[in-house]
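Continuing from the previous page...

OK, I double-checked the sequence for Transcription factor domain-containing protein against my notes and this is the correct one:
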Amino acid sequence: MSSPHDQSPGREILDYIDPTLLLPCDSEVWLGALQDTEEQDLLGHFVLPAGQGLEARLELLESHVAAHARTTHLPRDLFDSRHFGNFFSPFNVNTFARIFCRKRHYQHTVIHWPTFSLEKAALPLLMVVALTGATYSFHSRNGPGHITAARSFYRLADSYVFHELRKCVQGGASTSNIAESIELCQAALLMYALDTLLAGDEGVQCAAMTERLPALISTMRKLRFVGCRHDPSEDWSLFLQREQIIRLVSWAYGADCLITMSFNTPPFFSLLEMTGDLPCDPLIWDSDPSALESLRPFQDTTSYCIKGLMSWLLDDNMQSNDILERVPLFHLHIMLCAIQPIIFNLHISLSLPSQSDRLLRALATWRHLWGNAIDKLPDDQRKWLGVAKHVPDIEYLSRRIIEVSISSHADSSQYLKRVPSHTAREVHEFIREFVSRT
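Thanks. Re-ran it with the corrected sequence; updated structure tokens here:
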């Protein structure tokens, strides 16, 4: 699908997927009918008109971004005060935040919306939340106006967000600024996700994969976020802080794994370091702080880490399978991501033929587990699967990568040469040749 800026046919169209086509339109462009009590609780503090506090924060954001634009080597036309003020108006930002909240399942679920405040959020996060909501704001009556405007800010926002992330690391983490460090990492992860949508701009996408995500991963290591675990005795405040960290690391790990699959880029994370907890039940995550104590008895106390889960999946024995039957849906999602670097590393080390049967059995087990987990999911939760509904397609692609890699057809695929690429052209050609025709 071609970029809105370039509808002419060409090979570059293989690299572009417009996110607006992936989402259902709201019945009302600005808010739409609240779907249920959960929606009302999450969106309640966005329904009120934006106050003076938000206006002051946006003025401060503009001054910070303007100063950043003046002191960096960015093109001078990237920052225009009038254009910035019109787009990042209190009304627009409040609206975009609502849209993002409603469509949170289609993006990395790292923000705790019941406690999120536009007036208190770190400025980089405030900026990226607005841009993400605008990017997902398509409506049939209004067209892609806000989406086009949002994309014009991506380069500027990217530079600003990762500049602030570097300052965070240089300043060092402490108890007093850990909350801000978390929000800066959230902004960086969400900005990375936006960068990857600009597949028509190879420079931005290349930087996202080779500079931005590695910078975020390095920052999280320095902040000692990787390996974070919950403690049964923690209070709500500490639980929320740790859960935000756990979600950041989990989603960044998943993104790193999918880059390896899609672009043949060696992974930046090591599976051996993934010893931290995986995200909690969405029932807990989407709850108001006052409800935590009443919900805790229903929380699964079993603690899983991706390193342990992958060990069980690859073991392929009955005892491991019994344990894996209890694994939640999101954990299975991350497990499928985690198998991508394993396939990649075995392939480039010439070990894939000897390990292919083991990997194919693991994928078959995963598909069985995923089907059972979906069957157990209540009907009212299936509409919130977001990108997870497409995860089985990745399993099938993974299976075909293994099968073709050990076949006589391997030499005919540019993708299977495992040369790093900054576009998705090679994997698309592999899909067209070896997946779509099967």
